[in-house]
Amino acid sequence: MAGSPALVRLEKTQRRDLWWLEVVPIWILMGGFTVYAFWRGAYEGDFYSWGPYLSPFYSPLIDPQHHWWHWSPAILILAGPLSFRATCYYYRKALYRAFLFDPPACAVSERPGNYGGETRFPFILQNLHRYALYLAFIFLCFLWYDAIRAFWFPGNGYVLTPHLVAGQEGIASLSTGTQFGIGLGSLMMLTNVILLSLYTFSCHSLRHLIGGKLDCFSCALAGGARHSAWKLSSYLNDRHMLFAWASLISVGLTDFYIRLVATGAIRDLRLL
Ligand code: FES
After folding, report:
1. Calpha distance 192→201 (Å, rounded)
2. Which residue of 87, 124, 169, 209 has the lowest C-beta tally within 10 Å?
């Protein structure tokens, strides 16, 4: 195929398999998610909650009444999840291949130009991944809280609360309450936070912190416990790519479901 010098150079490979097929799902998934997340989080800025459900794009929810922040509340928290995903070791490989062609696949020639690696701006910022991991733990706490809360629905109308004032009988006031229930949204939010936890706990940086940097477990403080934790972290780490994509898809689907319910396009499917 004739083309520009850059394209001709990109094609240089002795591979005869369909190596380019590997990057197509990344274009579709990451491209689609980025467009959707930008539209939902930064542009639309609405329909992010319904009943006990809160979209993961908006958690924790800050200034929803727009007292001092006039744009979408999702923008205020964007830096946390974005920095974690953008600096992830797995996503670096996937994105460098799919979007920068640097290189597009193993044994396929890369873009022309000097390879600077992650030694120069902006890619040198990738080295902050460990700090993004600490931030991710904070976000996980909020998301677990949201997932548990998603099982507590506003009561059917009002819950009667006896409020007896001295000398006065009967029910003097009504107050709102919650009751346990299970909706499809509850299960989606729970699945979402489990997948996000698996993605976070399978992180390469975490595995390194737990024990990857040790030469000798038995010589280290709490070596036995660290060895067990490291083995678990290694097991999860082997599946990091799977958790990365599964959690990304689940964040998008959970938000989409909550939006559908919040706009009235569908009714929440209540199982209990
Ligand atoms: Fe992917 Fe840390 S390496 S989240």
Report:
1. 14
2. 169
